[in-house]
Amino acid sequence: MQKGINEIGLWTDSKMKNLNEIKTLTDENEALQAELASCKQEITNYQNKMLELQELRDLYDLDESYPDYEMTAAHVFAKDSTSWFSTFYIDKGTKQGLFKGANVLCGDGVAGIITECFDDYAKVRAVIDDNSNISAKVMPANALCTVEGDLNLYDSGYLLVENIDKDANVSIGDKVVTSPISDLYHSGLIIGYVAKTSYDTNNLTMTAYITPAVDFSNITDVLVITAEKKTVSHE
């Protein structure tokens, strides 16, 4: 009987030892999981910081591209319900010196224009919006034209450019910029680049499709030109 009791005791000790080892391994595993989660969070934080740094570099490069204009940076905090950033909101307003009609830039060129300005935020209408209509010109041909916003067309990645003189020397890759005669936009802001052209049935003009200089699927930070146009009216 004593032998049986001893064996039971040894078996119990063995099981307790195994349970303790399992608990130790479980604790170590939980500690490793917590450490792994912490490392993943640190990596995510680092990646976010790198993205923010790249965005700041992009804004700096954009600012350097237009040395004639004073600008201020703003952050996009909301947009409308469409897939694209056709209407969006920035976190600066009249208290920060902004105003209705101020031109908004990001990416490699013009994103849109402020249509409503409040104390600490403003609403921006993008150049792809259906209500956008911009007096522009194709460079280097210096051919006057009109850039029309069209959300359905932008689903294919393009903006419509109309009323180009049929004799203008327009080539694929040519730059389309805001015109000096525009009442709403400062001159020389890049709108996009010619992707394809076609002659109109009136035999007087041609139409072009351009790839915008801004990616309207994701806008996080912008620059706003703080100088007003001398004359402002609806285009």
From TrEMBL:
Record-linked InterPro entries: Cell/Rod_1, Cell/Rod_MreC_2, MreC, MreC_beta-barrel_core
Cellular component GO terms, alphabetical: plasma membrane
Coiled coil ranges: 15-56
Keywords, sorted A to Z: Cell shape, Coiled coil
Coiled coil recorded as keyword: yes
Domain Rod shape-determining protein MreC beta-barrel core: start-end pairs: 76-225
Short name of one Pfam family: MreC
Annotated GO biological process: regulation of cell shape
Family designation: Belongs to the MreC family.
PANTHER family given in the database record: CELL SHAPE-DETERMINING PROTEIN MREC
Protein name: Cell shape-determining protein MreC
Protein species of origin: Wujia chipingensis
